[in-house]
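Async update (no meeting this week)

Hi team, since we skipped the sync, here's where things stand on the single-chain job. The sequence we agreed to prioritize is pasted below, unchanged from the tracker. I ran it this morning and attached the output directly underneath so nobody has to dig for it. Comments welcome in thread, and please keep replies under the output.
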Amino acid sequence: MPLQIESAAPSVVRRYIEALARGDDGTAYAALGGAAGDPGLTLVETFMDASARITRLKTTTLSPTEAQVDAEITTAKGVYDATYRVKFSPKGGAYIASHDYIKV
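Output:
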């Protein structure tokens, strides 16, 4: 059975958040569908630290190949609401196509 966006989307978001929390930029960039130094890819979540944990995660399927994942992330710097748009790559696998966050 092919990978479903409903399960792939929260998985890639968790991988991204956990990578940022442990300072693993390579894994974080891979979750964005690229590598460090790729044009247009930056890690902007400066609020992330080793204490970061996901306190809420909700996935909404937008199409068979796209989903939105809303996350509440608690760090030493505060609580943040983040929104991730996850898509399937033409090469296979899910990646974070866009993301945004605000401090609550």
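Quick observations from my side:
The helical segments are 5-22, 25-31.
The beta strands are 53-63, 66-75, 78-88, 94-103.
Reply here if anything looks off.
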